[in-house]
Amino acid sequence: MVKLYRTVFTILKIFFGEKMKKFKYLMGAYYGVAFTNAVDLTLLDVDENGEFFSDLTKDFSDLTQAQQDVFNTMFDYWKSHDELATELWDYEAIWGYRDISFTSGGPTSLRIDGPWVMVAMDEKTNGGQDLDILPLSAITINGTPLKHWKSGWGLVANVRIEEDPAKVELAQELIKEIVNPEYAQSLFEATGKILENVSVEDYQSTDLPEIDKKIIAAMIESYNQAIPQPRMMEWNQVWPTWESGLLSWANVKPKNVEEAYAQIQASFSAMMSTLSGS
User: Fold this and answer.
1) How far apart are alpha carbons 108 and 13 in whole angstroms?
2) Please, what is the Cα angle at 200 between 196 and 203, to 5 degrees?
3) Closest to 13 (Cα-Cα) out of 155, 150, 112, 92
4) Sign for the pseudo-dihedral over CA of 89, 91, 94, 96
5) Would 19 be classed as within a structural domain?
6) Which residues fall within 8 angstroms of residue 197, CB to CB, at 6 or more apart?
7) Residue 139 lies in a domain
8) Could you tell me the pTM of the whole model?
9) Which helix (H) or strand (E) holds 176?
10) Could you tell me which of 6, 26, 38 has the C-alpha nearest to residue 152?
């Protein structure tokens, strides 16, 4: 089976002046893991005894210094937006706020996202002239590069055809044709998929637009620095747990990072109680 790269985020960067602010959407756990992965903070896993555990049930004082520093940074980030009364911590309004902010001449200089937004970004950034694409590691938090998850799409034959050798052979030949390096450019143009059996250098030698070449290079670099994505079904509970913990800051108005972290700790402690059946 040949994989197609499925890595997370490239960084979109608009060139403005020195006073522009960065945009990092932290409430969604799929974005937040780029920060927690950077400091080896485990949101959910299984220990050697087969029991679920999460670092976010620990007290703040029991976190490593690097992990504490991440929450300090997140708290300061929330506090600045809260004081400015932006819509960053409004789950419904955040998407519109993000799109309005990240435009040529707008107030935001960095956006974490993927290649699927490029059509919209082209329209918002002077035909792409004000836009650059960077790997995720270009953003650091307290000096540590961000890193996300990596996974991939696979192409397989339908098991229901295995009794018919002719159909199996046809399916195999179709897969070979789809992942043939000779057609890597066409596959990317049609689907946005990047083949792992094609090097960055080979993609750079194609007739793809320069912005697409930057996307491919950034995605592959981000993929190589990422960690494997968890596969347990229970991870579906992490998404709303992370979001509810961070979203609560807008209502609770924590006075310091310890109070802010306590909201996240409470959310994850409740989740772990559910998973353990207690």
Assistant:
1) 9
2) 95
3) 112
4) negative
5) yes
6) 2, 179, 181
7) yes
8) 0.81
9) helix 165-178
10) 6
What single-letter amino acid sits at 102?
A: F
Element (H, E) at 153: strand 149-154
Cα–Cα distances (Å) from 2 to 14, 94, 185, 212, 223, in that order, read: 35, 37, 17, 22, 16
Q: Which residues contact 40 (CB under 8 A, 6 or more apart)?
A: 64, 66, 67
Burial of 179-211, coded b for 16+ CB within 10 Å and e otherwise, reads beeeebbebbeeebbbbeebeeeebeebebeeb
Q: Answer yes or no: are the C-beta atoms of 224 and 149 closer than 8 Å.
A: no
Q: Are 187 and 178 in contact (CB under 8 A)?
A: yes
Cβ atoms 67, 173 nearer than 8 A: no
Contacts of 41 (CB under 8 A, 6+ apart): 55, 56, 63, 67, 70
Tens of pLDDT along 236-259?
999 999 999 999 999 999 999 999
- Within a 10 A sphere around the Cβ of 132, how many other Cβ atoms? 15
Distance CA 158, CA 167 (A): 10
- Indicate the helix (H) or strand (E) that contains 243: helix 238-247
* Residue 97, token pair as written in the block: 């706020």
Backbone φ, ψ for residue 239 (5° rounding): -55, -60
Q: Determine the Cα–Cα distance for residues 5 and 263; give it in Å rounded to an integer.
A: 36
Domain at 101, CATH number: 3.40.190.10
Domain residue limits at 54: 3-153+193-276
Number of domains in the chain: 1
Cβ 23 vs Cβ 118: under 8 Å: no
Task: Kindly report, residue by residue over 121-158, the tens digit of the pLDDT.
Answer: 888 888 888 888 989 899 899 999 999 888 888 888 88
Flag whether 168 is in a domain.
no
Q: Considering the domain boundaries, does residue 149 fall inside one?
A: yes
